[in-house]
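A quick aside before the break. I want you to see a complete sequence-to-structure record at least once, exactly as it would be stored in a machine-readable document. Don't worry about memorizing anything.
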Amino acid sequence: YSVVVPVYRGSKSIGELRRRLAAALEPLGHAYEIIFVDDRGSPENWPTIESLCNAFPSSVRGIRLSRNFGQHAATLCGISHSRGEWIVTIDEDLEQPPESVPALLQEGEEGHLVVYGVNEVRSHAWWRNLTSEIGRSLFKFAIPSLNREYTSFRAIHRSVANGLERFQSPFTFIDGYISWITHNYTTVVVPHDP
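That is the input. The structure line, written in tokens, reads:
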């Protein structure tokens, strides 16, 4: 398994994220790697990532981008450097609980190529939820095959991840690319933590 984490301003949370990911993944009995991609949002990111790489050399890798490229581009970079049969993408801020990763992987092992972790109830402010819904509606209008329930918390099979590499665009949108590669996806309800 590979876990890709784009890091923008997460230097204070990624140590805890690594610990919780390790606790969730180790009982599964498979080799895993956690790839932190420094998207240059804070000067503290890279020293923290280097420290984690040095402390856990067998399971943590770091990639430092030359400048800020945005969450989707940083995530795609991490995916392209991943080695796992399954690639999980998760945000740095602990809103998406690492303890839910096994549920995504289990659903994938049952025959789905992409599994999204979706929230029944989001803990954001009402105006943020509203603007997110407007954005989703616009993307769905532009890309009719797009899964409306897409999130940045996803498990992607290697066969789909390999297909992502063929897309070249200055406006990276991973979930749009995924919708062009496969319709074999499902969702798992996960908590939305503070």
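Two observations worth writing down. The chain has a mean pLDDT of 90. The longest strand covers residues 2-7. We'll return to this after the break.
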